[in-house]
Amino acid sequence: MRTLTVNTSNQCYSIHIGRGTYQMLPRLMKEVGVEKDRKLMVITDSSVAPLYGQSLQASLRAEGYQVGMTVFPAGEESKNLSVVERVIGDCLQFGLDRSSVVLALGGGVVGDLAGFVAATYMRGIPFIQLPTTLLAHDSSVGGKVGVNHALGKNYIGAFHQPLMVVFDVDVLRSLPARQVHSGLAEVAKHALIWDVSFVEWLEAHAEELLALSPERLTEAIFRGCEVKSAVVSQDEKELGIRSILNYGHTIGHALEAVSGYRVYTHGEAVAIGMAGASRLSVRLLGAPGELVDRTEQLLRRLRLPIRYAENWPLPALLEAMKKDKKARGGQYTFVLSRKLGQVEMVRGIEEAEIVQTLKEISTQ
Ligand SMILES: NC(=O)c1ccc[n+]([C@@H]2O[C@H](COP(=O)([O-])OP(=O)(O)OC[C@H]3O[C@@H](n4cnc5c(N)ncnc54)[C@H](O)[C@@H]3O)[C@@H](O)[C@H]2O)c1
Ligand SMILES: [Zn+2]
């Protein structure tokens, strides 16, 4: 098991990553002061509950904890206020009080929603993240929790740091391959924006990662969380440097939006976006051409797309990029790279440059 400590302004918490870590939960909870007299509530979704929820609840009960569980339908569509209200109703019925602890067992959707419930239930109770997707390594650091509004993703939310995060890499075995690849896109992003040696490590171990080697997954998650935590600790409330985490996301979000979130996984859209951002970086910042080759090669090795084949209307894509939450005053804003492992925010990019980039990453 590897442990990473995340420092935030008013709290510090541990991320434990490894095999069979759920069996260590009683000991780890004790370490953060959660004794058996505190009620626990597992919040999970309908896919994860039968795989890991029931067994987790049973094993914690066998240890003497009082554990409730509430399950909502799997999928991004559930990340909304009416599900929050239902889940809070279950928490009330189970008798959770201010000393109780929420266990968020699932992917990023569960982490965001259960974290938001914990942030708001009785003005805030502690929660422990038990991420079950690779992508959730990203959402387990940074303290952002929340749900979607009909008018946009993640418009309702809070900052609420977990008490700790416990990652069991064995649960990633049941993830559909496409979800594994999608999670690897955010891992690759963390390497590409921050750490050339991490890029090299990913290049060397891509095949083992795809084969779900527990040791390699542990290392990849550890290093991904390390980068995110380094960035976030400098900018908890997203006023400056944190925006570099949006590398590949301007085009990525636009592709997700124009396709109604039905064609690409988030990671696939971001991978295409990073291919685009690397190309834009060469043109606008004079980054070496090698940046594009290394980026695209790494993404391909991780079985991620670097081009889109659909004929999305250009005006819709451009409009989506202008509306991106990170854009200001209707200007196009991108996170671009001067060289491998180093990025910065660039504002006021000419539309013609973006149009040219979109042409390059489209196979139409
Ligand atoms: N808070 C943040 O900082 C942050 C960062 C990145 C992403 N997110 C959010 O994360 C969400 C996406 O997360 P995700 O990709 O994990 O999606 P997800 O939680 O919907 O999980 C994907 C699918 O896999 C299933 N699943 C989860 N674990 C499984 C396992 N071990 N075996 C088999 N199936 C499993 C889920 O039930 C779901 O159907 C988005 O809502 C996004 O906004 C938040
Ligand atoms: Zn992302």
From TrEMBL:
Q: Where does NAD(+) bind?
A: 108-112, 132-133, 144, 153
The protein's superkingdom reads: Bacteria
Q: Which reaction does it catalyse?
A: 7-phospho-2-dehydro-3-deoxy-D-arabino-heptonate = 3-dehydroquinate + phosphate
Q: Which residues form the 3-dehydroquinate synthase N-terminal domain?
A: 71-181
The listed locations are: Cytoplasm
- In which residues is Zn(2+) bound? 186, 249, 266
Q: Which UniProt keywords apply?
A: Amino-acid biosynthesis, Aromatic amino acid biosynthesis, Cobalt, Cytoplasm, Lyase, Metal-binding, NAD, Nucleotide-binding, Zinc
- Residues annotated as domain 3-dehydroquinate synthase C-terminal: 183-327
Q: What is written in the cofactor note of this entry? A: Binds 1 divalent metal cation per subunit. Can use either Co(2+) or Zn(2+).
Q: Which GO terms describe its molecular function?
A: 3-dehydroquinate synthase activity; metal ion binding; nucleotide binding
Its UniProt pathway annotation is:
Metabolic intermediate biosynthesis; chorismate biosynthesis; chorismate from D-erythrose 4-phosphate and phosphoenolpyruvate: step 2/7
Record flagged with keyword Iron: no
A single GO BP term for this record reads: chorismate biosynthetic process
One GO CC term, this protein: cytoplasm
- EC identifiers of the protein: 4.2.3.4
Necessary cofactors: NAD(+); Co(2+); Zn(2+)
For this protein, the record's Pfam families field holds:
DHQ_synthase, DHQS_C
Q: Which family does it belong to?
A: Belongs to the sugar phosphate cyclases superfamily. Dehydroquinate synthase family.
Record's PANTHER family? 3-DEHYDROQUINATE SYNTHASE (PTHR43622), 3-DEHYDROQUINATE SYNTHASE, CHLOROPLASTIC (PTHR43622:SF7)
Its biological purpose: Catalyzes the conversion of 3-deoxy-D-arabino-heptulosonate 7-phosphate (DAHP) to dehydroquinate (DHQ).
Protein name, UniProt field: 3-dehydroquinate synthase
